[in-house]
Sequence to fold (503 residues):
Amino acid sequence: MSEARITLDPRVAVGPIHRNLFGGFVEHLGRHVYDGIYEPGHPEADAEGFRRDVIELVRELGVATIRYPGGNFVSGFRWEDSVGPRAERPRRLDLAWHSTETNEVGLHEFAGWLEKVGSEMMLALNLGTRGTLEALDLLEYTNIAGGTELSDRRAAHGRSEPFNVRMWCLGNEMDGPWQLGHRSADDYGKIASQTAKAMRQVDPDLQLVVCGSSSAHMPTFGEWERVVLHHAYDDVDYISCHAYYEPTDGDVDSFLASAVDMDGFIETVVNTADHVAAVRGSSKRINISFDEWNVWYQSRFANVDKIEGTDNWPIAPRLLEDVYSVMDAVVFGNLMISLLKHADRVTSASLAQLVNVIAPIMTEPGGPAWRQTTFFPFSLTSRLARGTALQLVVEAPTYSTARYGEVPLVDAVATHDAEAGESAVFLVNRSQTEELEVTVDVSRLGDVAVREVHAIFDEDPHAANTLENTERVAPKGNDTAAVAGGALTITLPPVSWTAVGLS
Ligand code: AHR
Fold:
């Protein structure tokens, strides 16, 4: 059996872990909202038509902020359609997903749902087909207490208190040619800067996210960030990153190393932002909002899901309903490790998405709601990763990948909550065949013991939870985990993700 050694020192910190790192994302897309979180006829529906079983699962997942209402959807969205008496709300073509948007669920209903799940709204603005004025209008509607046309309109629509939205995305994936209103970095940087400045005239303390690249593999990656920040550096707090992973051409070894790509993506964007700061002589630091990340089988979307036809605009079609395997959950858990390893600069992130659409939670109309395999690494990391992320020294054997060259078989991060006297170690074994014995030097944590262990692995790495078998995969324990003589030892099964809680 191969071995790996890890050294951990609570004094060697990456940075504090912001709760917003455990954010989610709800887009008006497919069956996410309609027949997902909202299904008035369902036996579990509450008085507002929201499914109570889904609310419970979202609460269990432990999601801080939730980005809304898109995604690509937002670039054609008119927020005014989504407020006021439901019977008067228009139906619109959703060009992004070739669907019909009924606007039955809008801003007020979604804010009510957020209160039920205990999460905070992060709003995305349409800077694709709209501009600064509409952004200001929405800000007035959501955040001004009263006494103006739009704030009074909100009150007339039943909400006298402002929504007081703190985090705003200045558009979505504006570097992508698929985006309605796609622009050059120069054009987008200017409108983002103008819009941010105008919004700050309303409230200087808003948290504003400018669009970075929709993937580290965009042809404009790097230059996009430099140019956009050249225009908007002083006006924004965050630059976004988006990344989705899938095995391409059956290359599972590279897929299992996806977090290597995420690590590089984050580090390049941090370096680019700091370069712009240096050129400007600015001591301000721009952080990253990794506001879309996940495993996503995009090839399935392109080949199976795509809706076409001038007369074909379905309501809530089944779109992007990926079924996640154990292996997907291991990669997913590793992406969370990557986010935590960069907790000093990635201070906000949103798992894309939450329900039915590339989601940890699935539902069937009139039927059950269940946890996909990816649910578990998210809920466990959100619960256990508290306090400070620690820098580890990881010495592990490597393996060859076609995409990323030689890659360590083990990836890991640790967290330490000094106040609670608790720590956690998150580990991934990327080997498809080999068990790995890992020894973590925890002597500097003092006298600690293993409190809990949760692992995702299976004899069949393709096992998944489905409508037919909603509980096929669940976290397992790992009896090999023990602390003795200042060392935590654990044997990691092939293709596994593990969280160890220490206290
Ligand atoms: O999450 C699905 C889509 O992926 C989002 O709408 C878009 O922003 C990204 O391309």
Notes: Residues 18-384 form a domain with the TIM Barrel fold (CATH 3.20.20.80). The chain has a mean pLDDT of 97. The first strand starts at residue 2 and ends at 7. DSSP finds eleven helices and 25 strands in the chain.
